[in-house]
């Protein structure tokens, strides 16, 4: 577990193992998200280059037509 102390200015230093694990670098920004239901707070990197998202979602085995997407949306209760 990593622990940080809040300064009188409300600042913290993110421990190196957390920065490394999240791939955070100098100048990166993070977004703090409060889950009111659980009372937990999460923070997520927000300054990643769009190119770093490449490959996150696998390409479909075969192309999907617009008509097929509309039919699926309509079948699921959408406006397709």
Mean of pLDDT: 86
Helix content: 10-25%
Cα radius of gyration in angstroms: 20 Å
Instruction: Give the strand line-up of the largest sheet.
Output: 1-2
Question: Structural class of the secondary elements?
Answer: alpha+beta
Question: Can you tell me about this structure?
Answer:
- The structure is a single chain.
- By secondary structure, the chain is an alpha+beta fold.
- Helices cover 21% and strands 15% of the residues.
- The protein has two helices and two strands.
- Strands 1-2 form a two-stranded antiparallel sheet.
- A hairpin with a 4-residue loop joins strand 1 (30-35) and strand 2.
- It is elongated and about 60 Å long.
- The chain starts with 15 loop residues before the first helix and ends in a 5-residue tail after the last helix.
- The relative contact order is 0.10.
In brief:
With 80 residues, the chain is an alpha+beta fold. 21% of the residues lie in helices and 15% in strands.
Protein traits:
2 helices, elongated, 80 residues, two-stranded antiparallel ribbon, alpha+beta, 21% helix
Topology:
Blueprint: H1 16-22, E1 30-35, E2 40-45, H2 66-75
Antiparallel strand pairs: 1-2
């Amino acid at each position: 577990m990593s622990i940080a102390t809040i300064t009188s200015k409300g600042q913290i230093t993110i421990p190196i193992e957390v920065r490394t694990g999240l791939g955070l670098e100098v100048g990166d920004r993070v977004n703090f998200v409060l889950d009111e239901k659980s009372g937990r707070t999460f923070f997520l990197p927000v300054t990643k280059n769009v190119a770093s998202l490449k490959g996150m979602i696998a390409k479909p085995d075969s192309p999907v037509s617009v008509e097929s997407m509309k039919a699926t949306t309509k079948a699921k209760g959408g406006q397709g």
